[in-house]
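Project channel, design review

CF: Before we commit to the Steroidobacter flavus constructs, I'd like one complete example in the thread so the newer folks can see what an input/output pair looks like. Taking PBP domain-containing protein.
RD: sounds good, go ahead.
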Amino acid sequence: MSHTDHRPILQRLRHLLVALLLMVPTAAIPQDATFAVQVIVSPSLAKVKLDRDLLRAVFTMRVREWPDGSPIRVFVLPDDDPLSDQFYRERLGMYSYVLRRAWDRMVFTGTGFAPTVVRSEDEMMERVRATPGAIGFVRKREASSQNRAARPRWQTVLLMTGTAHE
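CF: and here is what came back for PBP domain-containing protein:
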């Protein structure tokens, strides 16, 4: 009977397993998971209450008018932007590919329009501020270096024209 030494193979498998286990935590957590998202609206929407159901209906393009009858203009970042993915998953409870399919179906069947895609968060803020009835989302910005109580993770921000009011 010959006895084969399996120790080198087992040692290599052990090293491979350790390497895989070390990679799992970083692969499972989005690289930029610490940023928070703000929903932003045009100045004309100061009084609109945005709950999850309304946000979902607005971003799926099922609701096309605000309660006052003004048209809704939805602005989004590109599908491959990590902020889009986080907003859709955490705030709307949906995946970006599901939203894209719904938007494409509406466009192709002629029953609706897809949101306007902007290239950057800066462009998002400019377009939402300048467009009546607009809504979008951006990475939460720090208001100032003053010591303030932490705000909730999700926040709706009214974009004012001119100077900011506290």
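RD: helpful, thanks. Strands lie at 37-41, 73-76, 116-117, 134-139, 155-158.
CF: The domain at 37-142+150-158 is CATH 3.40.190.10 (D-Maltodextrin-Binding Protein; domain 2).
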